[in-house]
Specification:
Elements (H helix, E strand, L loop, with lengths): L23 H12 L6 E5 L5 H8 L3 E6 L2 H10 L4 E4 L12 E7 L7 H11 E13 L3 H10 L2 E8 L1 H15 L8 H9 L3 E9 L11
Parallel strand pairs: 1-2, 1-4, 2-3, 4-5
Antiparallel strand pairs: 5-7, 6-7
Length: 217
């Protein structure tokens, strides 16, 4: 099957835990703990890749589902772990009913998507008070990103700089594949370094709408 993106590169599957992102499952656990999700909560991993986080969350007692636009990654993930639920779908138009999930998880994926469409879709899929969980590269400050999420109906409860894991991840990619070219071409990597990106964890809560009835009597 033809590779649709660099994450399908088989060389990258030799990364620790088979994860193609900084921080491995430790950052996943930090997000879950801060969000205070109860066992049994419904969690959707958006851009799930092979489904490693879906399998991990399932082992912790969460009802986890993963979606990814790459059919190749979803099919391979199902082969590796047939007991987890993985779906091939686009994040801009996810095949679920409104208010289905307690949390949506984006690990190194939101920055690669149409943020306007995806955050709008995320707000619809989350139950009132549900959590948006992000582990990703950021160029914005905590204040700037918080202002952005407020536009979409979210309130940030955590913005934590974890940039050290980005440096470690790049080193791991080089050790596993010989260069960063398996993730970025030379021009992409040169441009990325110019903006001095940071790697951060973000947890945001879907605001609950207050419905007030005006008494006109």
């Amino acid at each position: 099957m033809r590779l649709e993106n660099s994450y399908e590169n088989i060389k990258l599957h030799s990364m620790p835990d088979g994860l193609l992102r900084p921080g491995s499952l430790e950052l996943t656990l930090q997000l879950i703990k801060h969000a205070k999700l109860k066992p049994g909560a419904r969690v959707l991993d958006v851009g799930c890749g092979l489904g490693c986080s879906v399998a991990y969350l399932s082992s912790l007692g969460y009802r986890a589902t993963g979606i990814d636009k790459s059919v190749a990654l979803v099919e391979r993930g199902r082969e590796l772990c047939p007991n987890i639920r993985l779906i091939a779908a686009n994040a801009e138009d996810m095949p679920f009913e409104d208010e289905t999930f307690d949390a949506l998880l984006f690990e190194c994926s939101l920055s690669l998507m149409d943020m306007d469409a995806v955050l709008t879709e995320t707000l619809c899929l989350l139950r009132p008070g549900g959590k948006l969980l992000i582990s990703d590269v950021f160029c914005q400050s905590a204040e700037e990103f918080g202002d952005l999420l407020r536009i979409y109906g979210f309130e940030v409860t955590l913005f934590s700089d974890k940039s050290v894991v980005l440096d470690e991840f790049i080193a791991q990619v080089i050790m596993s594949t010989g260069s960063v070219d398996s993730l970025f071409d030379c021009e992409q990597w040169a441009e990325a370094k110019k903006v001095n990106p940071r790697y951060c964890l973000v947890v945001a809560r879907k605001k609950e709408l207050l419905i007030r009835e005006d008494n006109t009597d």
